[in-house]
Every structure is written in C-alpha cells, then in structure tokens.
Amino acid sequence: MGNSVEIALIQMRSARGRDENLQTAGAAVRAAAAHGAKIVVLPELFTSAYFCQRPDDRAALETAEEIPGPTTAAIANMARESRVVLIGGSVFERATDGTRFNTCVVFGPDGSPLGTYRKTHIPEDILYHEQHYFSPGDTGVVVVDTPHGRIAPLICYDQWYPEAARLAALAGAEIIVYPTAIGTIDDAVEANITGDWEQMWRAAQVGHAACNNVFVAAVNRVGREGAISFWGGSFVADPAGAVVAAAGADETILYAACDLSRVKPLQEAWRFFANRRPEQYERLLRKEKPK
Asked: End-to-end distance of the chain based on CA atoms, in angstroms?
C-alpha cells in the first residue's frame, strides 16, 4: 500500500461511571496501539450513560466541563501514553460563557490538542433530547492535520447531513470520523414509520465515502441503556464505498488499514468535485420544507 495507516475504533459500553469508562477506554487505546494502530477513535459521550433520553436531567447538566478540563486531560494522557492520534469521542463541554456543546477534541501522539470540533446538528426526538443539553456548534466543519493524515471529526447526528461530509472533503479531509451514540428505541410505532435505523445509518455514511471518495469511520457504543438498545455496528468504508471492516453488537476494537494514497486518485477519476455546479445550489442556503 502506498500510504497505509491502521485505524482502530473503540466500540464500548458506557452505562458505567465516568472513572470506569475512562479506564475501559484507556485500556482499549493501549491495546489498539499495541496492535499497531496509529489513529484511534472513541465513541460519542463515552464517559457516561446516554443522559439525553430525558429532557430534564439536571444532574447531567452539571457534568459539563470546560475544555481543557479533567476529561480532556485524561484523553490527552491516553494519546501521549500510547503515542497515537486519538479522536477523543466527544465530551459535554461548558464554554466560558456557560454555553454547553457536544465537543470532539483530536489529540496528537504527544498528547497535544490538534483540533476541536463542536457538533453542528443537534437532534430533538423521542429519547434523543439533545437540544435540551447542547447548543448547535459554532466551529464549522474542522479538518485536522495529523501525523497520519487529514481527519475531519463529525459527531453522530451530523452523519445525516451530506453537506457536512462534502465540506470536510472539499477542505481536504482524507478520513471522516463519526463518533456516535445511536440505537433502536422501544417504540414499535416509531420503528414502523421510520424503517430500519441501522441500515439507514450505515447506508448514509457509506454514501458519504462513495460520493466524496474519502474513508469514513463510524464508531458506536453498545449495550442497553434505559429504552435504547445501542447496536454497535461500527465500520470503516473506503473511498470507493466498500465496507472494509465492520463490528457486531459486542464490545470490541475494530481495525482497518486505510491506504490514504487512494483518496486523491479516486477523486480525480470520479471528478465529483470538478463537476459540481455551486451556482445552482443557492436553495441549499434556505430553510425550506419539502412541498
């Protein structure tokens, strides 16, 4: 392979306390590094159970931290100890003005922060009451230059928006990573209306890989929490839209070799960027409902 780097996705349960979750994540990062991984990705909000199932969890609101803070310090130490690029899942951030965000920090092998992204799209739905906890991110799409490639972290609900993936690819991302917390809810009526969530989730992100000719890595949590069964299913798709590695529904570390030298040639061959018609896309800037 011309420029191959191994990526590891840490698929874990998070229905434990913060300290135990950090210990689990740290042990997994060390194991991934020992396996040869150079890029390691943690899930969304991995230090706690998914508290957004309730719209009014005041105790959870109080767990938001400033960045840098105790949680990001622990993640930075994982990166430094294992000498990996570590996409730190996401943390519940409290900005200096009190605004709360769902935030991903990317750390380099020396533990230094290389880039920070705040989740752009915030859901408000049955058992996913995130608008009660997080403000929409204000960083825009961020592409981070790391020693092992150009990486764009997006977070969970961002995965349903092709605009975010396209912006990342246009800015030079070679790998788009999606730390995620998504599962099936205990509501048969909702499921009948909306279809197979896991199939849609995977199809949407594989489409981002194919339409932008980049690697896409999605990492999810597992286990049952309240009325949500988190299905895992973490995967890596290559720039041609092939799923090259996929996990089941148990705790695991998923590995994939990503040959970054494939990205540019495929983009030049398919010419999706060259043949864009931005002058025709003005309607994308309007908030319109389908007619």
From this structure: 48
Residues contacting residue 198 through CB under 8 Å, at least 6 positions apart = 184, 231, 233
Identify whether 93 is a catalytic site residue.
no
pLDDT band with cut points at 50, 70 and 90 for residue 287: confident
* pTM of the shown model: 0.96
Mean pLDDT in the chain? 96
Catalytic residue of the set 52, 93, 104, 156 = 156
Range 207-240 burial, b when 16+ CB lie within 10 A, else e: ebbbebbbbbbbbbbbbebeebebbbbbbbbbbe
In CATH, 4-285 is 2.30.40.10: no
Residue boundaries of the structural domains of the chain = 4-285
Dihedral (CA of 160, 68, 107, 266) sign: positive
Alpha-helical runs (H) found in 235-275: 263-270
What's the CA gap between 175 and 165, in Å, rounded? 10
DSSP per-residue letters across 140-198: -S--EEETTEEEEE--GGGGG-HHHHHHHHHTT-SEEEEE---EEES-HHHHHHH--HH
Q: Could you say which of 44, 130, 174, 225 is catalytic?
A: 44
Marked catalytic residue, from 38, 52, 104, 119: 119
Q: Does 119 qualify as catalytic in the annotation?
A: yes
